[in-house]
Structure formats: structure tokens, C-alpha cells
Design goal:
single chain, alpha/beta, seven-stranded mixed sheet, three-stranded mixed sheet
């Protein structure tokens, strides 16, 4: 048969209409501009299962940039549960939930998630991006107010854009600014404060106790996206509400099965039963997207069994402390909360971030430089993510590699001898471009 490469050549040989030719030239210019700015993103091909050691670009490397916070992505029990789900319930549903796409697995998983978070009901989606895309439009009206942290995840921003409510944005974790907007919205019948629990590009943890205080004072509700917290933040992994002891104060939680909880696909909204019931009737991503696949649903049920063992959370906490303290002592500028396993290594310059990530690969350490548009211009960094499955020796190897590359690139000059600094929140430069926020 004719292969894809040959078909591509034939496609280029045919004459394009003028409108298409102009558009292609425009796209080429945009792509070249991205390359010139040093923000062009390449995909490294992995030929092994996801884990702490992977095969990437033909060699074995240590992975320090996956959302695999508990090391469950290649867990044998979870894989076996996925296989069993496929054997008993098939590969896919080929339907949305309300037509013929709801199996007992979906209902069991929704119940399990509700029990985990201590909520009344849960609704599953294909991803948390879909959950964020559908929740606001389904629940709020034109006279209501959405008040969102400026650095919330891109999916939250897109979901808010779809909603016809009044949309307000407060400065990142700035409670005075949040209160100002709550006062400004005092006449709105429904006010919803929207925040990430953990901010995935900065490693910050939202100040939920203060947000709860302001919500109570100004008669507002609270929405928290827990995608980078569920399973590993808090004493037993119930996330930032558990960390701060405000579990009963949060009205709506959105989260994902695609990070710590196995790393496959799927997301959810959990909260009051009336919230979930109305989303089932109005939520467009729920009504028009396929059900979570049976093997994923059955595997997720096994994930929640594994979460009953608190040792995963404790190992991740120790690994986080080792890396943060080691990098700080070495002289790197580290962002975020001291207990957060997302550890941004601040660099600023996009080309420097990309070059440093490439240099780290020479030491068999897999990290990625993050630059515009996934972070604002001028705020480039390498985002390191720790896992409970990392060994202490692997973490030491990563710190050593950062030190060698950092000295070569003059990011650091010599190791510091002072005690490690704890960063509960490091204020970034004020030159933000907050219209475009972060990605997963």
C-alpha cells in the first residue's frame, strides 16, 4: 500500500488554493517565531512504561517530570485490575453516559470517589479538562459572579470563558484583592471563588483557611481544582482541604485520575448531590463525550484500595524534603511551598531553560524546560516533580546533575553553606502575562 510519507508528498505536490497557501505561510511564520524565541516544544519519544527509570530517545534515564506522584502509573495491581476490567466489561463504551454508556463500574467508582472526599455525589468525565470545561456553564447564570485566581490552570480559564457569569480575576493568592472583588460582587446572587489547590507551574498551595474565612464573611462558595493534590497532599492524601482541615467547607472539588491516581485518563466533579445532578442534565462535556473506558474505571477502583496505605504519602513527603533542601543548599532559586512535590527551578530565560534541560539529559536526568505559553514570558523554569517511587539515591543523582549543569551554565556559582531555606511562597516578578495560564 501507499505509505503515509508518500501520501504526504502527493498532498504537497497538488496546487493549493490562494487562501490555503496564505494560511500555510502564516503558520510557518508563527512556527519560526516560536523557534526563534526558544519556546519551541519537542516531544521526546519514550519506549518503556512510565516510571522512575524510563527509556527515552534510546537510553535509560531517570524521570523527574511526570505527574506520577505515587508511582502508580506502572503499578502491577493497577495493571491487573485494568486487564480484568477489559475482560469483564470490554474495551470501550462507544457511547456517552446517558444513552448507553453507564456501567456498574462507573457507579461504583463515583461512589468510591465520594467516600474518599467525604462528599455527597460524584460525576465522571473523560478528563479533568472536561470537568473544568463543563462545571461553571452548567451551574451559574448571567447574574452570578466567578472570582478566579489569576494563575489558575488553563482548563479553569477556558471553562470560565464558556460561562456567561460575571468573571473576575484576583492577583495570585492575594487575599486582599480577593476580598476587594467579593465586595465588588456583593449583589450577585451566587458568588463562586475558584482556585487551584496546588498551582502546577509554581508549586504554590492555595491558602484555603483564609479563602474559607472570606467566603463565610462575604456569602460566597468555594471551588477547588485538586488535580495536583489528590492522593498525596494531606495526612491520608485527601488533598489541600484535608491539609488545612477545611474538608467540609469546600463546595465543589474537581480532580483527575490522570496524575497520582494511576496516570491514565478520567476526571471528576464531586460535591453536593444537587451540583452533580444538575451537571448530569446540563454539562456539555458530560453529555457529549464518551464514558470513561471500563479498564480505566476498574483500575481506578484498585487505586483507591492502594490509597488506604499511608506509606506512599509519607515517602513522597520525605523525597520532597530531600530534593528541596538539597537544591536550595546548592544555590538554586526554588519556588513553591516547602511541602509541595512540584519544585520549579527558577531560570527566567526561555532559551536557558531549554538548554539546561537538554544538558541534564547528558547526565541521564529527564526534565523539561517550561516557557511561554505554559508560563508567562520571562518566567521560564524547569519544573521538577518528585514521586514516592523515587529512591534517595536517584534524588541525589538528580541534585548532583543539576549542580554540574548549573555551574557550567553559570546558574549557580558555588554551593551555599547556610541552612536550607523554606519557601512557603516566593513572590514572582510583577511582569506577568496572566491571560495565558499553565498546563497539566
Amino acid at each position: 500500500g501507499i505509505n503515509a510519507e508518500y501520501m504526504g508528498i502527493l498532498s504537497r505536490m497538488r496546487k493549493l488554493r490562494p487562501a490555503t497557501e496564505r494560511f500555510i505561510q502564516y503558520l510557518k511564520g508563527e512556527i519560526n517565531g516560536i523557534k526563534s524565541a526558544g519556546t519551541y516544544k519537542k516531544e521526546r519519544v519514550i519506549t518503556s512504561p512510565q516510571g522512575m527509570e524510563i527509556i527515552a530517545e534510546g537510553k535509560k534515564v531517570l524521570n523527574f517530570c511526570a505527574n506520577n506522584y505515587l508511582g502508580f502509573a506502572d503499578n502491577k495491581r493497577i495493571i491487573q485490575a485494568a486487564k480484568k476490567g477489559m475482560d469483564t466489561h470490554g474495551f470501550g463504551m462507544a457511547s456517552v453516559r446517558f444513552i448507553c454508556g453507564t456501567q456498574d463500574l462507573h457507579k461504583k467508582l463515583e461512589k468510591k470517589i465520594s467516600e474518599f472526599h467525604g462528599t455527597e455525589d460524584t460525576i465522571l468525565y473523560s478528563s479533568c479538562f472536561d470537568a473544568n470545561g463543563g462545571v461553571f456553564e452548567a451551574l451559574l447564570g448571567v447574574n452570578d459572579a466567578l472570582i478566579s485566581d489569576e494563575l489558575n490552570h488553563a482548563s479553569i480559564i477556558d471553562g470560565i470563558r464558556l460561562c456567561k457569569s460575571k468573571r473576575l480575576r484576583y492577583k495570585h493568592m492575594d487575599m486582599a484583592d480577593l476580598e476587594r472583588l467579593l465586595i465588588e460582587s456583593k449583589d450577585a446572587p451566587n458568588k463562586l471563588i475558584v482556585t487551584d489547590g496546588i498551582f502546577s507551574m509554581d508549586g504554590d498551595i492555595a491558602p484555603l483557611p483564609k479563602i474559607v474565612e472570606l467566603a463565610n464573611k462575604h456569602d460566597a462558595m468555594i471551588f477547588v481544582d485538586e488535580s495536583h493534590a489528590t492522593g498525596f497532599i494531606g495526612k491520608t492524601g485527601r488533598g489541600t482541604p484535608q491539609m488545612f482541615g477545611v474538608e467540609k467547607e469546600i463546595d465543589i472539588i474537581n480532580s483527575t485520575l490522570g496524575k497520582a491516581l494511576g496516570g491514565a485518563t478520567g476526571g471528576y466533579t464531586t460535591g453536593h448531590k444537587e451540583v452533580v445532578e444538575l451537571i448530569r442534565q446540563r454539562g456539555r462535556p458530560y453529555l457529549f463525550s464518551n464514558s470513561v473506558a471500563p479498564p480505566v474505571a476498574n483500575a481506578a477502583l484498585e487505586v483507591f484500595e492502594l490509597l488506604k496505605d499511608p506509606s506512599h504519602v509519607e515517602r513522597l513527603r520525605k523525597n520532597t524534603a530531600q530534593f528541596r533542601q538539597g537544591m536550595t543548599k546548592a544555590g538554586f532559586k526554588i519556588l513553591g511551598h516547602q511541602e509541595c512535590p512540584i519544585v520549579p527551578v527558577w531560570l527566567g530565560d526561555a532559551k536557558l531553560a531549554g538548554a539546561m534541560a537538554e544538558a541534564m539529559m547528558k547526565f541521564n536526568i529527564y526534565v523539561i524546560g517550561f516557557s511561554y505559553p505554559v508560563v508567562p514570558k520571562g518566567l521560564a523554569r524547569i519544573r521538577v516533580q518528585l514521586s514516592a517511587a523515587h529512591t534517595s539515591e536517584q534524588i541525589s543523582r538528580a541534585i548532583d546533575a543539576f549542580c554540574k549543569v548549573g555551574k557550567d551554565m553559570k546558574v549557580i556559582h558555588q554551593p551555599k553553606t547556610h541552612s536550607p531555606v523554606s519557601y512557603t511562597h516566593l513572590t514572582l516578578p510583577t511582569n506577568r502575562e496572566v491571560q495565558i495560564s499553565v498546563v497539566a
